[in-house]
């Protein structure tokens, strides 16, 4: 189990979702991924992607000028 | 959505694929423009996948897709939309994905006669043949007008439970949606691609004409979605932000362009695409001043930056009267 980070700042949806999807495909169940974004659309799209793929959304919050989303990878 | 539901109803496991070409209307535009901030920023394909309870794989094909836009074997539709080539390419990619991931066939929501270019009876076999999916392509909504496919012959899909829709009317689809308990859906096909938009296509054609060659980078097509595009001469074009959201988006491109902005009055960030001379930049400054809050002032001061993070040149200009900007300079 390990923690990983993904910089998706200044990218517009759906690119942050695609980068998240591709990164998660390299991780193992139990790993956590923290995604840093600036497009407000990610607050909807990344949690939706997690729901359809069965991964756990740990948190999704706006911090000053950016959005930080933490996902726990499940075995789906 | 309907096609998937029809196949799901037969007990078949379905997963979705959404190809990102760079020309998708939603997402980017909603994220960029402040006036759209209140619109719900959901991704339609993810929303549909969630309603259907299926996985959705989003695949970035924006680089490879250039060849489809630049060299469509079957030509363009009304604007620069290469719909038939696009469909062939996406079905081919979907079929390859199926083979790589142990899926048996591809389904699409096509309906004969629904779209003038890509959804005609004559184009259906072309798509199946040129994508090389052949008879592993099922169109559940109009299957009864088409030859039996391999999944039907094998009994994986019951032909009698597929449909015979045709034509532009969507009434049968609405009726089927109601029957299947679907009361909300995403926008119909065609409205989600910038290449079907006349104004966007003009901007893309202008870009090619000015460069003297048909090529683009993904950043080019992003910038065609924002701002007023004004071309006073072949060697340069202004991209004038229209509001705060576009201003913020365009700030990310300052390192790639000459840019200018008013300092004596509120006004738009403007990127200059091309190779402007000093005289061109003075003209550009007068145009930008016209779109600033100093449009009625005697003079407007602007800063012109040839190279990002280098010292700006300060210029003072008389704003150009709105009527002095020829209509043909506007690309729209």
UniProtKB/TrEMBL annotation, chain A:
- Which CDD domains does its entry note? SirA_YedF_YeeD
Q: Where is the UPF0033 domain positioned along the sequence? A: 4-72
Please name the Gene3D superfamilies in this protein's record. TusA-like domain (3.30.110.40)
Family note: Belongs to the sulfur carrier protein TusA family.
Its protein name is SirA family protein
